[in-house]
């Protein structure tokens, strides 16, 4: 896998643009629905009010369906992220003593080294053979199973020349990254409660919309 293919897989710019378009369409939809409710209430026109309440119901149902889908397929997102990490590990090229001909590979190596040193982890899952497809493994002719960054630094904070099998960090970087995300659960709780509040406001808007629609008599509808 080349660095270009990995970048496409990891960042997925097309998906990012699609999310941006989706947010834009969602914003326009909110403005349109709010316009329906405002005009329907101001003019006391039942068709607009009914359309407003119906649109809110559709939006709420879509949000609930999206939440259920995300909850049911969360393991797929985890697997995709793990595969992205494995794909990037194949681009772990070069050694500290080689010339930096492959700039992309050296950048990937530097990123992985920084991650493994700061998080005290090794590879994706700290398993044998994870680095076998990397350029680093071929440059070292398979003499070592794990790079120096997989082992604790010496007393001066520098990497050791080699990383013995028994001295490597036993935790994988995937687990360490997952732990970092779990530390943000307090922020996720705030987001979750905000979503619940928005859903309650939508339910209130649906009730008020149908109530206004029902309260307007057919005679008022003629004017």
Automatic annotation (TrEMBL):
<keyword id="KW-0812">Transmembrane</keyword>
<keyword id="KW-0472">Membrane</keyword>
<dbReference type="GO" id="GO:0005886">
    <property type="term" value="C:plasma membrane"/>
</dbReference>
<protein>
    <recommendedName>
        <fullName>Tetraspanin</fullName>
    </recommendedName>
</protein>
<dbReference type="Pfam" id="PF00335">
    <property type="entry name" value="Tetraspanin"/>
</dbReference>
<keyword id="KW-1133">Transmembrane helix</keyword>
<dbReference type="InterPro" id="IPR018499">
    <property type="entry name" value="Tetraspanin/Peripherin"/>
</dbReference>
<dbReference type="InterPro" id="IPR008952">
    <property type="entry name" value="Tetraspanin_EC2_sf"/>
</dbReference>
<feature type="transmembrane region" description="Helical">
    <location>
        <begin position="20"/>
        <end position="42"/>
    </location>
</feature>
<dbReference type="InterPro" id="IPR000301">
    <property type="entry name" value="Tetraspanin_animals"/>
</dbReference>
<feature type="transmembrane region" description="Helical">
    <location>
        <begin position="49"/>
        <end position="72"/>
    </location>
</feature>
<feature type="transmembrane region" description="Helical">
    <location>
        <begin position="190"/>
        <end position="213"/>
    </location>
</feature>
<comment type="similarity">
    <text>Belongs to the tetraspanin (TM4SF) family.</text>
</comment>
């Amino acid at each position: 896998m080349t660095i270009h293919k990995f970048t496409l897989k990891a960042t997925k710019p097309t998906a990012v643009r699609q999310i941006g378009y989706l947010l834009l369409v969602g914003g326009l939809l909110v403005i349109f629905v709010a316009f329906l409710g405002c005009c329907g209430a101001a003019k006391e026109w039942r068709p607009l009010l009914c359309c407003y309440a119906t649109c809110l119901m559709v939006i709420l149902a879509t949000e609930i369906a999206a939440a259920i889908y995300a909850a049911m397929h969360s393991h797929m997102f985890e697997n995709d992220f793990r595969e992205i990490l494995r794909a990037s590990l194949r681009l772990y090229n070069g050694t500290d003593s080689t010339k930096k001909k492959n700039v992309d590979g050296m950048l990937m190596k530097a990123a992985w080294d920084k991650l493994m040193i700061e998080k005290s982890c090794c590879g994706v899952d700290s398993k044998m053979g994870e680095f076998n497809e990397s350029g680093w493994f071929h440059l070292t002719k398979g003499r070592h199973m794990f790079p120096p960054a997989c082992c604790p630094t010496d007393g001066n904070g520098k990497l050791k020349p080699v990383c013995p099998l028994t001295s490597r960090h036993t935790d994988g970087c995937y687990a360490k990254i997952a732990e970092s995300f779990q530390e943000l659960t307090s922020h996720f709780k705030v987001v979750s409660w905000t979503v619940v509040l928005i859903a309650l406001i939508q339910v209130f808007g649906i009730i008020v919309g149908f109530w206004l629609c029902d309260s307007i008599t057919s005679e008022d509808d003629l004017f």
